[in-house]
Amino acid sequence: MRALKGGPCDPIAPLELPHSLHKFQRVSSGDELNMEGYDTFRGGFWNYFSMGMDAQISYAFHSERKLHPEKFKNQLVNQSTYAKLGCTQGWFCASLFHPSSKNIAQLAKVKIMKKHGQWQELHLPHSIRSIVCLNLPSFSGGLNPWGTPNSNKIRDRDLTPPFVDDGLIEVVGFRDAWHGLILLAPKGHGTRLAQVDKINNNLYSLKFSFYL
């Protein structure tokens, strides 16, 4: 992870980093990853990263839970709070309140690399308004956005069930909140965009929501 020196993230207070990044450390000036003019961090990652509409709701959820932790005592409460926030931010009526110009494909270019492969641009359907990158089978109050691919998907697309220690990042897309509600079904899942070793997100605009 790199942060531009003198930018909005400088200085970064270690204790304010998300819990999953507390083991992150700045690399030394002699490290091969170090780049002039940037603070570069190296460390472990066990979490999810979302961009787009879901990120707005995730951040609102995180802020509310930080202010009132006593209200978030079980998975059902967490999920109902997510749904309420989705209503207040218009995610259930995304086609009305959020034009296609705010779809992920118009706001960012996503590149992926599979194991021992080359960087390639990830095709993002124009209907996708949010993508989630994660390396664990749980987000948004305990839901599994990747699900368990059936035998055909495993054979045709070389997909596997998600595990924390498999070294892979799952990339999942969502159209709107109704699409997200599919996760409540026994075999529900988002749009499986890719399962990769590395991912690179290039944002076209700074007016973009993301949450870690």
TrEMBL record:
One of its GO terms (biological process) is phospholipase C-activating G protein-coupled receptor signaling pathway. The keyword Kinase applies. One of its GO terms (cellular component) is membrane. InterPro entries: DGK, Diacylglycerol_kin_accessory, NAD/diacylglycerol_kinase_sf. Pfam families: DAGK_acc. This is Diacylglycerol kinase accessory domain-containing protein. It comes from Rubroshorea leprosula. Residues 47-210 form the Diacylglycerol kinase accessory domain. GO terms for molecular function: ATP binding; ATP-dependent diacylglycerol kinase activity. Keywords: ATP-binding, Kinase, Nucleotide-binding, Transferase.
